[in-house]
């Protein structure tokens, strides 16, 4: 199971869902500010990712995210850090 | 039902996915979500799925309109956030299409004080979302717990007057909830005595909130704090509270939304009236045909105690008016003997209004039971341990929610009661006696077979009808009938308790309760009548009659009573209306049968100077003062 690409898909799904934007549109314009990235929408994405992946994101790091790729990177790093003690 | 499954199990994941797929296709096809999707929404405990479901439902623009529309305003002391979507998804599970109207941020007090909510005019329901910040001071003195206690008391008093102001201006039903006290507040108090006194004051605050529901007909209360304490997830997320003024987690908000769904279901009379149950591995452990009565698990230690607990719970539902039907594949003699003789069995044969113990398909048995009870199959819920049986019933009769008795028997009681399928607003005497009423009814239908013509049977029944202006004692039952009656419901206008009380206090209207008794017993209040009293003509706004008493001419007796009363008041015409709802075809020809003439589409009138309505000769009309005619 490729966990890395699964996380990418989960993040894209969550963004596409909340921002009402097809995944293709997010790839074409990865800057979150170009979409309906309001503070409320960003918190919806945060809650969805945390619930779905069972992780807790650092809120300051999350707020600093500006692009789709940076968000995927943050989620991957958080998920990997959470898995570390068990391995 | 996925109510108690972990959201991370594969089964729950795929159930969530199936639900979202179904909603997506409903949006694309522009149709209302079907019963299977609605039942899934009512039982779904996964906030991610429900949030997505709510977002999809927001885009739904169905062409047809068969589900009732319900306007739900949200008034919140904090950011509403995910609650809007979660509430939309959950309330759809009640069997309605909700229109959610979220209030603006920081408008809580103003909207309650003026009863001015987000949409135009009164919503049906106002769902309050309250957090601790409303009751706690911004800052408080850690050394003076007594001052904090006093402050909480003043805040409750302030909320009480705010609510009173809203109720004076609005007909909407307000759904409020208790508020959990954050651990941080309690832990900041280092003295045990001080902490106990603040905790006690907080409980009193919550008790006061629930007391408002007892005090006002228009208010419904949810013990959110208690429900959170029994939930398997965190109630609060401090990051979200500090960053976005969102004190509750999505899981907690969904828990609250599901309670609001139950409130809507009870208020709109969409709850189920009948519980159909399997026997083997549901009401007892084991298969009676194989193990014999002595080999069954019931009573004693685990797991027999789980089945006994379920039987006791089912009995408690029956005591509150839920009708029980047995739907079991067994030899009837074997099952009957165990039910009658097993020392640990609580539900004896007489507890069930219909016992369908045979080898026929359960869906067909349920259909027949519905016919003999004169109820729609949609008023049933069905509990069975077999995946195959549940699937067969829900494919044949999709309106029936199925409750799983599979798996761990310790969860049987929770699986049955957690979805809240049987919720009602208030219990009336009729509810408490319903099981006996239905037993009398079964006897009545046996009696019926001995007569050559229906008139002979009706005459022998000795029907006594009483129509009387509603009183504070009969008001609740009449409003309940308005909410729950679908078949004999002439105009579909569902006057609730508040509206009925309002009309009853107004001299220009007459609200009547309809009671029936016969040689087999007293049926109690079986219908309601709402009439506008003009100077020259009276207009029936609606009349509802329980399907229990249809086919006996009661409805003609009621109009006969009304005609007599109208004539003695010098009124020259009676007007009536019929509005088809898709479910009230049984009452379609009523006005013509009563001798009224059609004046326009769905409008009827009777000239009291030229004709009248006779009370059928087999009915004795009883007046409130005891006179009979």
What string gives the helices and strands of chain A in order?
HHHHH
| CATH fold title of the largest domain in chain B | Rossmann fold
The CATH homology group name of the largest domain in chain B: SGNH hydrolase
What is the number of helical segments of chain B per DSSP (H or I, 4+ residues)? 23
Instruction: Please name the CATH architecture of chain A.
Output: Orthogonal Bundle
Largest inter-chain contact set: A-B, 12 and 18 residues
- Secondary-structure content class of chain B: alpha/beta
| Portion in beta strands of chain A | under 5%
Number of strands of chain B: 19
Query: How many β-strand stretches of chain A?
Result: 0
Task: List the SSEs and their pairings.
The complex is a heterodimer of chains A (87) and B (629).
Chain A: H1 3-19, H2 23-28, H3 39-53, H4 59-64, H5 68-83
Helix pairs in contact in A: 1-3, 1-5
Chain B: H1 10-29, H2 35-43, H3 47-58, E1 69-76, H4 83-92, E2 97-102, H5 108-114, E3 125-129, H6 145-169, E4 173-177, H7 183-188, H8 192-215, E5 219-222, H9 224-229, H10 238-244, H11 250-267, E6 274-277, H12 288-291, H13 304-319, E7 323-329, H14 332-341, E8 354-358, H15 362-373, E9 380-384, H16 387-396, E10 402-404, H17 412-417, H18 429-448, H19 454-461, E11 463-469, H20 475-484, E12 488-489, H21 497-504, E13 509-518, E14 521-533, E15 537-545, H22 554-568, E16 573-577, H23 590-593, E17 597-600, E18 603-607, E19 619-622
Parallel strand pairs in B: 1-2, 1-3, 3-4, 4-5, 6-7, 6-9, 7-8, 9-10, 11-19, 15-16
Antiparallel strand pairs in B: 11-13, 12-15, 13-14, 14-15, 16-18, 17-18
Helix pairs in contact in B: 1-3, 2-4, 3-4, 4-11, 5-6, 6-8
């Amino acid at each position: 199971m490729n966990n890395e690409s699964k996380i990418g898909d989960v993040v894209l799904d969550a963004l596409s869902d909340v921002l009402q934007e097809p995944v293709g549109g997010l790839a074409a314009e990865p800057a979150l500010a170009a979409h309906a990235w309001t503070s409320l929408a960003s918190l919806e994405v945060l809650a969805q990712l945390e619930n779905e992946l069972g992780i807790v994101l650092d809120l300051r790091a999350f707020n600093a995210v500006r692009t789709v790729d940076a968000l995927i990177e943050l989620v991957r790093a958080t998920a990997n850090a959470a898995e570390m003690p068990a391995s | 039902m996925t109510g108690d499954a972990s959201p991370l199990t594969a089964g729950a994941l795929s159930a969530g996915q199936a639900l979202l797929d179904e909603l997506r296709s409903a949006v694309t096809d522009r149709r209302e979500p079907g019963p299977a999707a609605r039942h899934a929404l009512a039982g779904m405990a996964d906030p991610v799925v429900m949030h997505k479901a709510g977002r999809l439902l927001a885009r739904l623009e169905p062409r047809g309109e068969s589900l009732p529309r319900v306007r739900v305003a949200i008034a919140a002391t904090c950011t509403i956030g995910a609650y809007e979507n979660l509430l939309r998804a959950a309330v759809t599970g009640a069997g309605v299409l909700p229109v959610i109207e979220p209030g603006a941020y920081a408008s809580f007090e103003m909207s309650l004080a003026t009863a001015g909510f987000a949409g135009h005019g009164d919503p049906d329901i106002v769902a309050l979302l309250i957090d601790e910040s409303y009751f706690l001071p911004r800052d408080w003195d850690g050394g003076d717990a007594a001052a904090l206690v006093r402050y909480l008391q003043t805040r409750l008093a302030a909320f009480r007057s705010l609510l009173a102001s809203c109720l004076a201006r609005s007909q909407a039903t307000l759904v409020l909830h208790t508020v959990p006290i954050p651990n941080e507040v309690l832990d900041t108090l280092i003295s045990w005595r001080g902490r106990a006194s603040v905790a006690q004051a907080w409980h009193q605050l919550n008790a006061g909130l629930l007391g408002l529901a007892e005090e006002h007909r228009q208010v419904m209360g949810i013990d959110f704090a208690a429900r959170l304490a029994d939930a398997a997830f965190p109630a609060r997320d401090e990051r979200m509270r500090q960053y976005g003024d969102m004190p509750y987690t999505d899981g907690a908000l969904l828990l609250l939304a599901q309670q609001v769904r139950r409130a809507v279901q009870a208020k709109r009379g969409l709850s189920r009236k009948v519980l159909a149950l399997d026997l083997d591995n549901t009401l007892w452990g084991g298969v009676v045909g194989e193990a014999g009565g002595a080999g069954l698990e019931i009573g004693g230690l685990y797991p027999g105690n789980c089945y006994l607990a379920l039987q006791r719970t089912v009995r408690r539902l029956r005591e509150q008016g839920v009708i029980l039907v047995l739907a079991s594949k067994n030899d009837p003699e074997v099952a009957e003997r165990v039910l009658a003789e097993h020392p640990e069995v609580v539900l004896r044969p007489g507890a069930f209004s219909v016992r369908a113990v045979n080898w026929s398909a359960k869906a067909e048995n349920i259909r027949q039971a519905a016919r003999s009870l004169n109820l729609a199959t949609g008023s049933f819920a069905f509990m069975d341990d077999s995946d195959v049986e549940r699937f067969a019933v829900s494919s044949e009769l999709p309106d029936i929610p199925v409750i799983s008795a599979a798996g761990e028997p310790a969860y049987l009681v929770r699986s049955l009661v957690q979805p809240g399928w049987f919720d009602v607003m208030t219990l009336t005497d009729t509810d408490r006696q319903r099981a006996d009423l239905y037993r009398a009814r079964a006897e009545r239908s046996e009696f019926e077979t001995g007569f050559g013509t229906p008139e002979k049977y009706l005459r022998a029944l000795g029907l006594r009808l009483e129509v009387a202006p509603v009183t504070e004692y009969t008001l609740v039952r009449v409003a309940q009938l308005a909410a729950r009656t679908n078949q004999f419901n002439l105009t579909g206008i569902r006057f609730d308790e508040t509206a009925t009380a309002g009309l009853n206090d107004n001299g220009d209207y007459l609200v009547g309760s309809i009671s029936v008794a016969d040689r087999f017993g007293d049926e109690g209040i079986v219908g309601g009548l709402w009439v506008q009293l003009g100077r020259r003509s009276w207009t029936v706004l609606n009349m509802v009659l329980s399907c229990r008493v249809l086919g006996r001419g009661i409805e003609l007796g009621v109009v006969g009573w009304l005609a007599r009363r109208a004539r003695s008041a010098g009124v020259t015409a009676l007007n009536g209306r019929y509005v088809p709802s898709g479910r009230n075809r049984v009452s379609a020809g009523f006005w013509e049968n009563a001798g009224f003439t059609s004046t326009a589409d769905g409008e009827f009138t009777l000239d009291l100077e030229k004709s009248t309505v006779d009370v059928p000769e087999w009915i004795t009309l009883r007046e409130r003062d005891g006179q009979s005619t």
